[in-house]
Design brief:
The chain contains three helices and eight strands; from the N terminus they run ββααββββββα. By secondary structure, the chain is of the alpha+beta class. The protein has one domain: START domain (Alpha-D-Glucose-1,6-Bisphosphate, Chain A, domain 4). Strands 1, 2, 3, 4, 5, 6, 7 and 8 form an eight-stranded antiparallel β-sheet that branches. Helix 1 crosses helix 3. InterPro entries: Polyketide_cyclase/dehydratase, START-like_dom_sf.
Amino acid sequence: MTHVIESVTVEIGAPAEHVWRVLVDYPRYPEWNPYTIRVDTTLAIGDPIDLHLPNADGSPGTFVNREYLRVVDAPTHLRYDTATEIPGLFAQRDQWITSLGPDRCTYYTTDAFSGEHADVVVEHSGAWVKAGFDSVAHALKARAEKLWAERP
């Protein structure tokens, strides 16, 4: 069985291309992203993407979740997955930006969990993933709109 966790969809008052640049500006994640504290990647298809996340139990510190880039389709779609990193679990994350015109777009993200351990992972961590994804959507909106308003 596959479990899909989806963030809220936010409407962003900035062009899709601008939001994409904010989304993949990984060195600046510590400035605005509450759920993905740091990202290490080349953005090349097949290469790893190391996601530094806060501990799910709220304790101090972070952990690294390694995934692999599968789709980098600027400015609309970013996909990465766990490949065989976690035995018994496969997770595929998609992030979507949809243009609504020259100065507006939407953003949302999903994570599809499958495999032998998917039920247990979603039962224990699903609410944390959902809250994290929602926080990223709202933070991306705030960051992209702020930078768009400040442009020269």
